[in-house]
Fold:
Amino acid sequence: MVLRPAGSTVPTAPVLEAELASHPWVTSSGAALPAAIFALLVVGVLVGTAFFLGRQEQLVGRNTVRSQQAFAAAEAGMHAQLGEWVASDANQLAAGDSIRFSGAVAASGWYRGSLRRLNDLLFLLRSEGFSADSAARQQLGMVVRLQPVGIRVPAALRTLTVLGMSGSSLVDGTDNVPGAWGGCPPPGPAVPGIQLPDAEALETVACTSAACVTGTPPVEEWPLTADSLLALADGVVGDLRARASKVLPGGSRTIQPSSTGGICNTDDPDNWGSPAQPLGPCGQYFPLVWVDGDLAVNGVQGQGILLVDGDLVADGGFEFYGPVVVTGTLTTRGAGGHFFGGLAAARVDLTQDPVTATSTISYSSCALARAIRATATAQPLRSRSWLVLY
Structure:
């Protein structure tokens, strides 16, 4: 029950609406609160979207950095193998065999991969790179081709001048197979024993061509010059200094294989492999040796490619298997020198004691092939050699 003062009346509905409208807190803008709430909602959505897009952009940028780190690591792995091509390992692989490698890129990733031989000349190089946190990876592939040294050996001995030969010396153009080596193909046809510009010059030395030179023919007259004697199939002999696995100063050396714990000491400057022990630790080690200046060797043995930018004196029964190039004079003394493969020298003096010493220069296609193959480097194919595997 509602008590009202005497004489008062109950206002009608229109009167109540008019009175309510006259109060100051009631206006025509009653939609302000919903509008404010909607505005706050829109602002919140915009701010949230901005944060979301910023976070996504940050993640995309981080993933891009990781992906680029992995790509760079994979590429570094491939070029590390090309730049540090270990000929004694890779070049001795049989077709279908492979070797694995791994390494790190300073503070920005790491890589692993494999090198597989496809045939005599081609290899497939696969390198898988990882980012620094190993969250991203990329794998690249490259087909590389062996680039053998372009030394041409058309005769057992190529020279401009024969200074002397004794009856105990022998230059043999018959294809000889090293006695301790296995796996050599059958001997091929004989080559000239000596190739030089003037065959009549041999008549002035102590040994005639018929007595100590054999081959087909024993002596071949060829228009050799100082330039053509040192020419390669793809350049000149001087270009090989940059490819040499050993660059040595001139002097006197005793060349012999060395190993530690059954591992060949390839860093030893006087270790040029062990042709007399092909199954030993250094049996498959064929270095490319460049000598700056005159060299005198007094024993024992070596194999590979020998390039002497000066004179070479061989003594002590020194044996070498593979091509030899001497820009100056080759001289044999004492027990002499024994070369199997092929030799080129501007001048040659093979004057030996006919009783106590014998110098031998014998052509050997097997020794040449192994030395040239073992010292070959690898280069990418000129077109379509590189691809992204994933």
User: Anything to note?
Assistant: The longest helix spans residues 32-83. The chain has two domains: 67-148+378-388, 157-374. The chain has a mean pLDDT of 86.
